[in-house]
């Protein structure tokens, strides 16, 4: 499963991706990101630590000649950091034309979530709430929708 999902974004596909989200697990929590950001999913790749990187970044990886910063979402969200497991994946995303890797515990599925299905986070004051775009109910489960525009920046 070097790359179980590869996706290019021609303009015609944008409408078909509008309400599609890739869901994943971090600990016991369900999260989602808009599929339009997802380029591919990989097993754990070698990571080179970088000096002066923010603490929530593991370092960088070389993916087919592209240098990609790898962020551990557990660190970013203030969760307990655990060792990688057999289900740990690197989600490769493109945000503002820049590639990023996101370390997640496991990938779940692609689901449809409409804008009407997403409600704002109940508390707007915390740092973590700035990384959560909203809360969606999917198949009787809560999915926290990640704000890809803010999670990779300070």
Automatic annotation (TrEMBL):
Domain CheW-like per the UniProt entry, residue ranges: 18-154
A GO CC term assigned to this protein in UniProt: cytosol
GO biological process assignments: chemotaxis; signal transduction
Gene3D superfamilies xref list: CheA-289, Domain 4, SH3 Domains
Transmembrane segment boundaries: none
Name of this protein: Purine-binding chemotaxis protein CheW
Annotated organism of origin: Acetanaerobacterium elongatum
Record lineage: Bacteria, Bacillati, Bacillota, Clostridia, Eubacteriales
């Amino acid at each position: 499963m070097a790359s179980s999902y590869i996706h290019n974004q021609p303009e015609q596909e944008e409408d078909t991706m509008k309400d599609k989200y890739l869901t994943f697990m971090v600990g016991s929590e369900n999260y989602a990101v808009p599929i339009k950001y997802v380029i591919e999913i990989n097993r754990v790749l070698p990571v080179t630590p970088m000096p002066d990187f923010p603490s929530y970044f593991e370092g960088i990886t070389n993916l087919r000649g592209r240098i990609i910063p790898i962020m551990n979402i557990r660190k970013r969200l203030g969760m307990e950091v655990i060792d990688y497991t057999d289900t740990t994946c690197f989600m490769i995303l493109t945000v503002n034309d820049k590639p990023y890797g996101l370390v997640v515990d496991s990938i779940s599925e692609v689901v449809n979530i409409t804008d009407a299905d997403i409600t704002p986070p109940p508390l707007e004051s915390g740092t973590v709430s700035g990384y959560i775009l909203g809360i969606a109910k999917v198949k009787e489960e809560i999915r926290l929708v990640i704000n890809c525009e803010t999670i990779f920046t300070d």
